[in-house]
Amino acid sequence: MKNTIISIILILWTTIGFSQSFNTQKLDSLLSLLGQNDKFMGSVAVSKDQKSIYQKSIGSASIDQNIKADKFTKYRIGSISKMFTATLVLKAVEEQKLKLNQTIETYFPNIKNSGKITIKNLLNHSSGVHDFTSEKDYLEWNTQNQSREDMLSKISNGKSVFEPNEKSNYSNSNYVLLTFILEDIYGIQFSELLNKKISAPLGLKNTYYGDKINVENGESNSYSYLGTWKLEPETNLSIPQGAGAIVSNPTDLNLFIEELFLGNIVSEKSLETMKTIENDYGFGMFKFSYLDELNFGHTGGIDGFRSFTIYFPKDKLAISMTSNGLNYSQKKILLSISNTFHNKSYELPEFHKIKITSEDLDKYLGTYSSKEIPPKFTITKEGNTLIAQVTGQPKFPLEVIDENVFTFTQAGVRLEFEPENKTMLIKQNGSEFLFTKNN
């Protein structure tokens, strides 16, 4: 759910064709290797023509309780929730309870520009409503229950980022507002609406609006890796609402996205509307390139959870992954899965652990700024792990790969330090930015 300055790029699929005789042994080896090296905990599922053709779970649903993950384990899916919420909105449009071009001042008169902002603007992030997760104090209250009035106050008190339709900018606030609108027009809670309109009809037994994590109910805790897996605090799900509060697993996600694209949830016209991409955003969907073909889906992240679901319309192929602990590039994992199912070769990663002491990290600690980009990086440590934090964003762990060289593999970021010169060079996606230590 939380957006960071370190952007995780959308996946460019470069494989060709599909074969049903794929090398499951190699894919098993990859996922097991990642698990053995503390790179991944979670579940993967692949479905072709509405038939499950692969499923694998790695690691623990709860480390403290020694509960292993399996195909029934449920995960918070973060922003994939937006695809469900957008689907419910389009169903409401079909039922003539909403119009895409209607403005929202009737529902939220205190929201800036509410007389200009339409339902469509909320759906494709063109409203200009600020994202409450970008507030500097967000991590001070994100574990506490928030009422509807609390959330509306936090959203309405924020400044407009831009005028409606001027451009697009991802904002969780848009989908919280859509949640409240859906509850108003149907007169029931979002959780009940989700079950009534989607989960129950499709038989999604593991998909529902979440609450406090209950491992005894098959739900998983989430973790970040700081030398060992550390339990992450739980975002109170009264906050993200339909922007990120849904719990599911890969099997259910595949079924949902398949049924959506087969026209069994909303009409073909509504689906085409959802798939219409403007300034990189559809209605609860992203586009993903696969040679000359466009594929659609969404990513998700909340606390230590990371997830992804994508549908290849041409191949009628669905791939979903849910993780409760990720210390590796999601892009690389998914590209390996795609290569496997399209019979393309790839190399298994090699991991060489470098021993480093807490004292060895002291020379890197401090705050770094750059003349090229405004955010500052604060480098701290926890035990034998170096920690980075961008101004106003959550901390993330760095992995040592060479002398003075660290990476954050989830986002493909490489940090090269020169302690003697008090500099740090950040490399990502072909770009380089030089930072200098301020203290």
Automatic annotation (TrEMBL):
<dbReference type="InterPro" id="IPR012338">
    <property type="entry name" value="Beta-lactam/transpept-like"/>
</dbReference>
<feature type="domain" description="Beta-lactamase-related">
    <location>
        <begin position="43"/>
        <end position="327"/>
    </location>
</feature>
<dbReference type="InterPro" id="IPR001466">
    <property type="entry name" value="Beta-lactam-related"/>
</dbReference>
<protein>
    <submittedName>
        <fullName>Peptidase</fullName>
    </submittedName>
</protein>
<dbReference type="InterPro" id="IPR050491">
    <property type="entry name" value="AmpC-like"/>
</dbReference>
<dbReference type="Pfam" id="PF00144">
    <property type="entry name" value="Beta-lactamase"/>
</dbReference>
